[in-house]
């Protein structure tokens, strides 16, 4: 049985310093969006996230990262943004970046990933209950965060869990206000014990920098019921050596 999903988290600077980690993998649409980014850091994160997503796909499918074509098209305005997809449909993909750290995931089923820094905008937004938080937190979740000894971390963990589900379901953040995650503990779950939420599995990302929290959600391939370990064989978390090996294989003939 294959793993439920493949994920990778790394610092942008470390990834882009690897041989073969360059903008050659980007499509013309991605190059235009990268060029329009306002800062060099934003341009670097843009490239690193999309490269990392391709590496996750290549690692999962046995192909080459340079052959993975990512597309984004908004269903409302048809602009080159929104939920990413692999052009040939070999697997589902998602990515996220937060001020110098990037994360990506690939799976056979729909997937969503999100990371945030503890010093980032989501954490600086204020205490739960302030204007804006009611759009994505339930009353039970607000109470859970307020009662936490580390409310900022608890808030951010809720945020990334919700955002991972948003990316998975493509429902939009306001639509997640009715999904109550207050029953989930504020500390990270073990990678082999994801939370079951109906048809979805929710993992907390284990291999992240100390000031980063993250989560990834994936649609399970079969029926799920009740607590306990998933029927899938878990999450494959790629190391820097894995990424180096996958990049090195780009020049090989198929």
UniProtKB/TrEMBL annotation:
InterPro entries for the chain: 4-PPantetheinyl_Trfase_dom (IPR008278), 4-PPantetheinyl_Trfase_dom_sf (IPR037143), P-Pant_transferase_sf (IPR050559)
Residue span(s) of domain 4'-phosphopantetheinyl transferase: 110-200
Domain of life: Bacteria
Pfam families recorded: ACPS
TM ranges: none
Keywords: Transferase
Gene3D superfamilies the UniProt entry points to: 4'-phosphopantetheinyl transferase domain
Family, per entry: Belongs to the P-Pant transferase superfamily. Gsp/Sfp/HetI/AcpT family.
The protein's name in its UniProt record: 4'-phosphopantetheinyl transferase domain-containing protein
Species of provenance: Streptomyces rameus
Lineage: Bacteria, Bacillati, Actinomycetota, Actinomycetes, Kitasatosporales
